[in-house]
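Q: Hi! Curious about what Polyprenyl synthetase family protein looks like structurally. Here's the sequence.
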Amino acid sequence: MSAAPGGASSFGLPFDDPALEATVEEAMARVEASLRESVGHVDNYIATAAGHLLEAGGKRFRPLLTVLSSQAGPHAGKVLDDVVKAAVVVELTHLASLYHDDVMDEALLRRGSQSANSRWGNTVAILTGDLLFARASQVVADLGAEAVRVQAMTFEVLCSGQIRETVGPAEGQDPVEHYLTVLAEKTGVLIATSCRFGAWFGGADDATTEILRVYGERIGVAFQLADDLIDLASESGQSGKTPGTDLREGVATLPVLYAQESTDPADARLLELLAGPLTDDALHAETLGLLRAHPAMERARVTTRQWAQDARAVLEALPQGQVRTALSLLADGVVDRSA
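A: Let's find out. The predicted structure is below.
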Protein backbone atom coordinates (compact mmCIF):
# COMPACT_ATOMS: atom_id res chain seq x y z
CA MET A 1 0.00 0.00 0.00
CA SER A 2 1.48 3.35 -0.99
CA ALA A 3 1.79 5.98 1.69
CA ALA A 4 -0.46 9.01 1.56
CA PRO A 5 1.03 12.44 0.81
CA GLY A 6 2.61 14.17 3.75
CA GLY A 7 2.02 12.38 7.01
CA ALA A 8 4.78 11.05 9.22
CA SER A 9 7.39 11.17 6.45
CA SER A 10 6.97 14.95 6.14
CA PHE A 11 8.37 15.37 9.64
CA GLY A 12 11.04 12.67 9.55
CA LEU A 13 9.09 10.65 12.09
CA PRO A 14 10.83 7.32 12.72
CA PHE A 15 8.84 4.36 13.97
CA ASP A 16 10.52 1.85 16.25
CA ASP A 17 7.34 -0.20 16.27
CA PRO A 18 6.52 -1.72 12.85
CA ALA A 19 2.97 -2.44 14.01
CA LEU A 20 2.31 1.23 14.85
CA GLU A 21 3.86 2.30 11.54
CA ALA A 22 1.65 -0.11 9.61
CA THR A 23 -1.46 1.10 11.44
CA VAL A 24 -0.64 4.75 10.76
CA GLU A 25 0.08 4.08 7.08
CA GLU A 26 -3.18 2.19 6.67
CA ALA A 27 -5.16 4.92 8.41
CA MET A 28 -3.55 7.74 6.42
CA ALA A 29 -4.20 5.92 3.14
CA ARG A 30 -7.86 5.57 4.10
CA VAL A 31 -8.01 9.24 5.07
CA GLU A 32 -6.52 10.24 1.73
CA ALA A 33 -9.05 8.15 -0.18
CA SER A 34 -11.91 9.63 1.85
CA LEU A 35 -10.63 13.16 1.27
CA ARG A 36 -10.59 12.61 -2.49
CA GLU A 37 -14.13 11.29 -2.33
CA SER A 38 -15.21 14.26 -0.22
CA VAL A 39 -13.98 16.89 -2.69
CA GLY A 40 -15.66 15.20 -5.64
CA HIS A 41 -18.65 16.76 -7.40
CA VAL A 42 -20.88 15.96 -10.36
CA ASP A 43 -19.85 19.28 -11.91
CA ASN A 44 -16.31 18.95 -13.25
CA TYR A 45 -15.52 22.65 -12.77
CA ILE A 46 -16.54 22.52 -9.10
CA ALA A 47 -14.72 19.23 -8.59
CA THR A 48 -11.52 20.71 -10.04
CA ALA A 49 -11.70 23.81 -7.85
CA ALA A 50 -12.56 21.81 -4.73
CA GLY A 51 -9.76 19.33 -5.29
CA HIS A 52 -7.17 21.94 -6.26
CA LEU A 53 -5.34 22.25 -2.93
CA LEU A 54 -5.79 18.58 -2.12
CA GLU A 55 -4.05 17.66 -5.35
CA ALA A 56 -1.29 20.18 -4.59
CA GLY A 57 -0.20 17.97 -1.71
CA GLY A 58 0.33 19.06 1.86
CA LYS A 59 1.67 17.53 5.03
CA ARG A 60 -1.65 16.11 6.33
CA PHE A 61 -0.39 17.12 9.77
CA ARG A 62 -3.83 17.33 11.34
CA PRO A 63 -5.01 13.90 10.16
CA LEU A 64 -1.68 12.43 11.26
CA LEU A 65 -2.23 13.78 14.77
CA THR A 66 -5.78 12.43 14.78
CA VAL A 67 -4.54 8.98 13.84
CA LEU A 68 -1.63 8.97 16.30
CA SER A 69 -3.85 10.21 19.14
CA SER A 70 -6.35 7.44 18.43
CA GLN A 71 -3.63 4.91 19.19
CA ALA A 72 -3.48 6.16 22.79
CA GLY A 73 -6.87 4.53 23.43
CA PRO A 74 -7.86 0.93 24.07
CA HIS A 75 -8.15 0.14 20.35
CA ALA A 76 -4.46 0.55 19.55
CA GLY A 77 -3.49 -1.32 16.42
CA LYS A 78 -6.89 -0.81 14.82
CA VAL A 79 -8.06 1.74 12.27
CA LEU A 80 -11.54 2.76 13.37
CA ASP A 81 -14.04 4.23 10.91
CA ASP A 82 -14.89 7.15 13.20
CA VAL A 83 -11.22 8.06 13.57
CA VAL A 84 -10.87 8.19 9.78
CA LYS A 85 -13.97 10.38 9.55
CA ALA A 86 -12.65 12.70 12.25
CA ALA A 87 -9.33 13.01 10.41
CA VAL A 88 -11.20 13.91 7.23
CA VAL A 89 -13.21 16.56 9.09
CA VAL A 90 -10.16 18.39 10.42
CA GLU A 91 -8.33 18.29 7.08
CA LEU A 92 -11.36 19.51 5.12
CA THR A 93 -11.73 22.34 7.62
CA HIS A 94 -8.07 23.21 7.21
CA LEU A 95 -8.26 23.10 3.42
CA ALA A 96 -11.37 25.29 3.42
CA SER A 97 -9.62 27.88 5.59
CA LEU A 98 -6.69 27.99 3.14
CA TYR A 99 -8.99 29.02 0.28
CA HIS A 100 -10.26 31.90 2.40
CA ASP A 101 -6.79 32.82 3.69
CA ASP A 102 -5.42 33.11 0.18
CA VAL A 103 -8.21 35.49 -0.79
CA MET A 104 -7.55 37.72 2.21
CA ASP A 105 -3.79 37.59 1.62
CA GLU A 106 -4.10 37.99 -2.17
CA ALA A 107 -1.70 35.04 -2.40
CA LEU A 108 -0.42 33.90 -5.78
CA LEU A 109 1.03 30.55 -4.69
CA ARG A 110 -0.03 27.81 -2.30
CA ARG A 111 1.91 24.55 -1.89
CA GLY A 112 4.02 25.42 -4.91
CA SER A 113 0.98 25.75 -7.19
CA GLN A 114 -1.11 28.65 -8.37
CA SER A 115 -3.56 29.63 -5.63
CA ALA A 116 -7.27 29.11 -6.25
CA ASN A 117 -8.03 32.82 -6.09
CA SER A 118 -5.29 33.53 -8.61
CA ARG A 119 -6.56 30.82 -10.95
CA TRP A 120 -10.34 31.26 -10.69
CA GLY A 121 -10.84 34.58 -8.90
CA ASN A 122 -11.87 35.52 -5.37
CA THR A 123 -15.54 34.64 -5.69
CA VAL A 124 -14.94 31.06 -6.78
CA ALA A 125 -12.20 30.61 -4.17
CA ILE A 126 -14.44 31.82 -1.34
CA LEU A 127 -17.37 29.69 -2.46
CA THR A 128 -15.11 26.66 -2.83
CA GLY A 129 -13.90 27.17 0.73
CA ASP A 130 -17.54 27.35 1.83
CA LEU A 131 -18.27 24.13 -0.06
CA LEU A 132 -15.47 22.33 1.77
CA PHE A 133 -16.73 23.62 5.12
CA ALA A 134 -20.12 22.19 4.17
CA ARG A 135 -18.55 18.84 3.31
CA ALA A 136 -16.77 18.82 6.68
CA SER A 137 -20.11 19.49 8.37
CA GLN A 138 -21.70 16.55 6.56
CA VAL A 139 -18.95 14.21 7.73
CA VAL A 140 -18.91 15.43 11.32
CA ALA A 141 -22.69 14.98 11.51
CA ASP A 142 -22.07 11.23 11.28
CA LEU A 143 -20.01 11.45 14.47
CA GLY A 144 -22.80 12.73 16.68
CA ALA A 145 -24.13 15.93 18.21
CA GLU A 146 -21.20 16.44 20.59
CA ALA A 147 -18.72 16.22 17.72
CA VAL A 148 -20.76 18.80 15.82
CA ARG A 149 -20.64 21.08 18.86
CA VAL A 150 -16.86 20.71 19.18
CA GLN A 151 -16.39 21.36 15.47
CA ALA A 152 -18.56 24.49 15.65
CA MET A 153 -16.66 25.76 18.68
CA THR A 154 -13.36 25.09 16.91
CA PHE A 155 -14.47 27.02 13.85
CA GLU A 156 -15.64 29.93 16.01
CA VAL A 157 -12.26 30.19 17.74
CA LEU A 158 -10.45 29.87 14.40
CA CYS A 159 -12.46 32.79 13.02
CA SER A 160 -11.81 34.81 16.18
CA GLY A 161 -8.09 34.35 15.66
CA GLN A 162 -8.36 35.54 12.07
CA ILE A 163 -10.29 38.62 13.18
CA ARG A 164 -7.73 39.38 15.90
CA GLU A 165 -4.94 39.12 13.33
CA THR A 166 -6.78 41.45 10.95
CA VAL A 167 -7.57 44.08 13.61
CA GLY A 168 -4.22 43.92 15.39
CA PRO A 169 -3.38 44.36 19.06
CA ALA A 170 -5.43 46.70 21.22
CA GLU A 171 -3.87 49.91 22.44
CA GLY A 172 -1.35 49.10 25.15
CA GLN A 173 -1.39 45.36 24.45
CA ASP A 174 1.93 43.60 24.07
CA PRO A 175 2.23 42.79 20.34
CA VAL A 176 4.03 39.50 21.03
CA GLU A 177 1.36 38.38 23.50
CA HIS A 178 -1.31 39.33 20.97
CA TYR A 179 0.43 37.41 18.20
CA LEU A 180 0.78 34.24 20.25
CA THR A 181 -2.91 34.48 21.13
CA VAL A 182 -3.72 34.74 17.43
CA LEU A 183 -1.67 31.61 16.71
CA ALA A 184 -3.33 29.64 19.52
CA GLU A 185 -6.73 30.53 18.07
CA LYS A 186 -6.09 30.57 14.35
CA THR A 187 -3.84 27.49 14.16
CA GLY A 188 -3.61 25.84 17.56
CA VAL A 189 -7.33 25.24 18.07
CA LEU A 190 -7.83 23.05 14.99
CA ILE A 191 -4.71 21.03 15.74
CA ALA A 192 -5.91 20.64 19.33
CA THR A 193 -9.25 19.38 18.03
CA SER A 194 -7.41 16.96 15.75
CA CYS A 195 -5.79 15.35 18.80
CA ARG A 196 -9.00 15.57 20.82
CA PHE A 197 -11.05 13.84 18.12
CA GLY A 198 -8.42 11.13 17.67
CA ALA A 199 -8.25 10.28 21.35
CA TRP A 200 -12.01 10.55 21.78
CA PHE A 201 -12.98 8.34 18.86
CA GLY A 202 -10.11 6.00 19.67
CA GLY A 203 -11.84 5.31 22.98
CA ALA A 204 -9.36 7.08 25.29
CA ASP A 205 -10.55 8.25 28.70
CA ASP A 206 -11.28 11.91 29.44
CA ALA A 207 -7.92 12.55 31.12
CA THR A 208 -5.94 11.20 28.16
CA THR A 209 -8.13 13.12 25.72
CA GLU A 210 -7.49 16.38 27.58
CA ILE A 211 -3.73 15.75 27.71
CA LEU A 212 -3.67 15.25 23.96
CA ARG A 213 -5.85 18.31 23.35
CA VAL A 214 -3.40 20.51 25.27
CA TYR A 215 -0.48 18.88 23.49
CA GLY A 216 -2.17 19.65 20.18
CA GLU A 217 -2.67 23.31 21.01
CA ARG A 218 0.96 23.74 22.00
CA ILE A 219 2.41 21.86 19.07
CA GLY A 220 0.02 23.84 16.87
CA VAL A 221 1.59 27.12 17.99
CA ALA A 222 5.07 25.64 17.47
CA PHE A 223 3.99 24.49 13.99
CA GLN A 224 2.90 27.99 12.97
CA LEU A 225 5.95 29.67 14.50
CA ALA A 226 8.10 27.29 12.47
CA ASP A 227 6.10 28.21 9.37
CA ASP A 228 6.80 31.90 10.06
CA LEU A 229 10.53 31.21 10.20
CA ILE A 230 10.38 29.12 7.03
CA ASP A 231 8.58 31.98 5.26
CA LEU A 232 11.53 34.25 6.00
CA ALA A 233 14.46 31.85 5.80
CA SER A 234 13.67 29.44 2.98
CA GLU A 235 13.82 29.78 -0.77
CA SER A 236 10.66 29.31 -2.84
CA GLY A 237 11.76 25.90 -4.03
CA GLN A 238 11.77 24.64 -0.44
CA SER A 239 8.56 26.06 0.95
CA GLY A 240 6.38 26.18 -2.15
CA LYS A 241 5.61 29.83 -1.37
CA THR A 242 7.26 33.11 -2.26
CA PRO A 243 9.84 33.93 0.46
CA GLY A 244 8.87 36.81 2.71
CA THR A 245 5.18 36.67 1.80
CA ASP A 246 4.17 37.82 5.28
CA LEU A 247 6.56 40.77 5.04
CA ARG A 248 5.11 41.85 1.73
CA GLU A 249 1.58 41.60 3.11
CA GLY A 250 2.44 43.64 6.20
CA VAL A 251 1.91 40.72 8.60
CA ALA A 252 4.27 41.12 11.56
CA THR A 253 5.28 37.60 12.55
CA LEU A 254 7.39 36.82 15.62
CA PRO A 255 10.85 37.59 14.14
CA VAL A 256 9.57 40.98 12.99
CA LEU A 257 8.00 41.72 16.38
CA TYR A 258 11.24 40.82 18.12
CA ALA A 259 13.27 42.97 15.71
CA GLN A 260 10.95 45.91 16.32
CA GLU A 261 11.81 45.79 20.02
CA SER A 262 15.43 46.71 19.20
CA THR A 263 16.90 49.99 20.43
CA ASP A 264 20.26 49.39 18.74
CA PRO A 265 21.15 52.31 16.38
CA ALA A 266 22.57 49.73 13.99
CA ASP A 267 19.03 48.48 13.37
CA ALA A 268 17.73 51.91 12.29
CA ARG A 269 17.49 50.97 8.61
CA LEU A 270 15.67 47.69 9.32
CA LEU A 271 13.22 49.43 11.64
CA GLU A 272 12.61 52.11 9.03
CA LEU A 273 11.84 49.49 6.41
CA LEU A 274 9.58 47.49 8.71
CA ALA A 275 7.58 50.63 9.48
CA GLY A 276 6.58 51.13 5.86
CA PRO A 277 4.96 49.16 3.03
CA LEU A 278 7.17 46.51 1.45
CA THR A 279 5.44 46.02 -1.88
CA ASP A 280 8.48 47.31 -3.78
CA ASP A 281 10.68 44.37 -4.78
CA ALA A 282 13.98 46.09 -3.96
CA LEU A 283 12.84 47.24 -0.52
CA HIS A 284 11.34 43.86 0.19
CA ALA A 285 14.59 42.10 -0.72
CA GLU A 286 16.63 44.51 1.42
CA THR A 287 14.36 43.97 4.40
CA LEU A 288 14.42 40.21 4.01
CA GLY A 289 18.21 40.21 3.90
CA LEU A 290 18.55 42.40 7.01
CA LEU A 291 15.99 40.37 8.93
CA ARG A 292 17.60 37.03 8.05
CA ALA A 293 20.87 38.28 9.57
CA HIS A 294 19.22 39.77 12.69
CA PRO A 295 19.35 38.13 16.16
CA ALA A 296 15.54 38.27 16.17
CA MET A 297 15.53 35.18 13.95
CA GLU A 298 17.42 33.06 16.48
CA ARG A 299 15.31 34.45 19.30
CA ALA A 300 12.19 33.37 17.41
CA ARG A 301 13.72 29.92 16.88
CA VAL A 302 14.29 29.63 20.63
CA THR A 303 10.67 30.54 21.28
CA THR A 304 9.53 27.98 18.72
CA ARG A 305 11.61 25.26 20.36
CA GLN A 306 10.18 26.21 23.75
CA TRP A 307 6.61 25.71 22.52
CA ALA A 308 7.60 22.31 21.17
CA GLN A 309 9.25 21.46 24.49
CA ASP A 310 6.09 22.52 26.33
CA ALA A 311 4.10 20.18 24.08
CA ARG A 312 6.46 17.31 24.90
CA ALA A 313 6.21 18.08 28.62
CA VAL A 314 2.44 17.56 28.53
CA LEU A 315 2.99 14.03 27.24
CA GLU A 316 4.84 13.03 30.41
CA ALA A 317 1.46 12.39 32.02
CA LEU A 318 0.84 9.59 29.49
CA PRO A 319 2.13 6.05 29.98
CA GLN A 320 5.45 5.40 28.29
CA GLY A 321 5.10 3.66 24.96
CA GLN A 322 5.37 3.95 21.20
CA VAL A 323 2.55 6.48 20.84
CA ARG A 324 4.02 8.84 23.41
CA THR A 325 7.45 8.48 21.78
CA ALA A 326 6.06 9.16 18.31
CA LEU A 327 4.21 12.27 19.47
CA SER A 328 7.32 13.53 21.24
CA LEU A 329 9.45 12.99 18.13
CA LEU A 330 6.81 14.76 16.06
CA ALA A 331 7.33 17.89 18.16
CA ASP A 332 11.00 17.84 17.17
CA GLY A 333 10.10 17.26 13.54
CA VAL A 334 7.77 20.27 13.50
CA VAL A 335 10.56 22.59 14.63
CA ASP A 336 13.37 21.11 12.54
CA ARG A 337 11.62 20.95 9.17
CA SER A 338 12.62 23.24 6.31
CA ALA A 339 9.31 23.32 4.43
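A: A fun detail: The first strand starts at residue 109 and ends at 110.
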